[in-house]
Amino acid sequence: MKALDKKALKTLLKFNVLHPEHTSAEDFAHAKAAGLLFDDAGITHDEAVAWARAEFAATEKAGVVRNFLAGLGQNAPHLRAALSAFAIMTHFPDHACALTDWPFCWICGAYPTQSFSRSFANRGRWMGAVTGLRQPQTLAFYLRQHNREDVEEVRGGDIDLLCALLDLIAASPAGETPTKLAKKVRALPGITLSVPHAQRLLETLGHAGILQSPAHPGFIYQNMTCCFEPCKNSDWSYPLNFWTGKDGINTDALKFWFADFPMIAGWKPK
Known about the structure:
This protein is 47% helix and 3% strand. By secondary structure, the protein is mainly alpha-helical.
């Protein structure tokens, strides 16, 4: 992984899309030169959909999976983020802007025309998962950034760490909630996660269909609109907001994602 510009990263993580004036022109220029902040640009719904589908078609699942594993071991959330976007794009439909009583598309959440803050999207990417509305321009941006970076080498320790995480999740009591689980994940030896990063990691596993409930499967099984998903436990994104300990781990999804890693693809609860 390339060396990080810590000053630029600090500026990115403090960036407030509602108050961009809080970032000085000097700091913005420095972070922009480092490739972490960007000028806003307008985008139409149809441009966003076409961009997302093009980036998805250009993205190799194997590289997404490898960077997810490396990102877990290296505590590099931006490396993990593409798995979230790729999973959501799996059944993302090609469609025209569908307006009803709302001013945005009910299929994807994009407006007919809007300003797109790539800086805000990149801040979310550095949290480790797609957050908030899953608009196509955000999904496209995550995958574009992934496609511009090298695929990382996966180490044995990265695989062991994910298996340890799976063991921890599998040992959850039936009534375990995502919030309780996140606290245990943060205490797992070998893992270093802030509270938000732990949440995004578990949400990524939900997006990928690894943590799901039978009635509310992940995105590798269905397309979910941005605007009409079920709202139980709104502190967590779908489908993790419906997951409890009794749902355990979906081993079919593990095989889908980690076929190149037999230890993970063949993982079983102890």
